[in-house]
Structure formats: C-alpha cells, structure tokens
C-alpha cells in the first residue's frame, strides 16, 4: 500500500510540474502599433469599397519546442466577417515592407517580424474597427499585445 501511495504521489507531482511548465508557454503576437491602409499594393488594386489593411506583426515562441507559423492562419474580423490575408501581400516587398508570407517553424525563443495585408471594407479599416487573430492548428496559448 505504501508503494502505491508513493507512485500516486509521484504521478501527481509530475502532473503539477508539467502544468506549471505549460503555464509559462505562450506564443506572443505583437500587433501594431497600428494598421496602415492603402488602396493599392504594387500592381494590385483593392476592390470598390475596400482597402488593404497592412498590419505590422511579430510572432515569438516563448516556451514551446516548436511552433509552426503560416500566414494562412492569420485572420482579421470586421463586423463578424473574417478575412484571410490577401495575396497582394507579396507586393509589399516592392514598397519596402518586410512580409510574413513564408511558412516557418519557430523553435523555442524564435521570433519573426513583418507585415500582412488584408483586403477589407475601407470604412471599418480606416476607423480601426477590426480584430486580428491567429488560429493555428494545435493547442497553443496565443497572447496578443500591442507595443
């Protein structure tokens, strides 16, 4: 009976330690300082009533062994409509913006910076009425901050 109690205590202790380690893990996503709007990016022109919302972003892996970043998981929501990143994002590199269009793996402590563009309703974007989210596959603690 004493051996069983020790085994249970050991398992419980390991679970507490594992939970404590997991609490410190996060993917820190810095959004901003603010979005920039443009009616055109390189040769791409926004559709009528829309604009390109260009967001400066930083992703930092704080504690996970690996975090898989892809721009396809980035979303902007306006008026309960969710928008994916715009293909026109690749044109940003021609106007001196670093871009985040590569899919990469961030190891623990890894960090990437750049911009993504979203084609969204002009009026809402210019008023700053949008929410950026990142929805990766997997169970990650995503923490959003602004500089």
Structure report:
With 147 residues, the protein is an alpha+beta fold. The chain has a single domain, classed as Immunoglobulin-like, CATH 2.60.40. It is 18% helix and 42% strand. It has 2 helices and 12 strands, in the order αββββββββββαββ. The strands form 4 sheets. Strands 1, 2, 5, 10 and 12 form a 5-stranded mixed β-sheet that branches. β7 (74-78) and β8 (81-84) form a beta hairpin. The longest helix is centred in the first third of the chain and has 22 residues, at 2-23. The protein starts with a helix and ends with a strand.
- CATH topology category name: Immunoglobulin-like
Strand content: 35-45%
Could you state the order of secondary-structure elements as H and E?
HEEEEEEEEEEHEE
Q: Helix proportion of residues, in percent?
A: 10-25%
Judging by the overall fold, what is the CATH architecture?
Answer: Sandwich
What is the highest CATH level, the class?
Answer: Mainly Beta
Gyration radius, to the nearest Å? 20 Å
Q: What would you call the shape?
A: globular
Number of domains: 1
Parts with pLDDT < 50 across at least 5 consecutive residues: 1-21
Mean pLDDT: 85
For the sheet with most strands, the description reads:
5 strands, mixed
Structural class: alpha+beta
| Oligomer category | single chain
Could you give the distance between the termini? 56 Å
Counted by DSSP, the helix tally is: 2
What is the total tally of β strands? Answer: 12
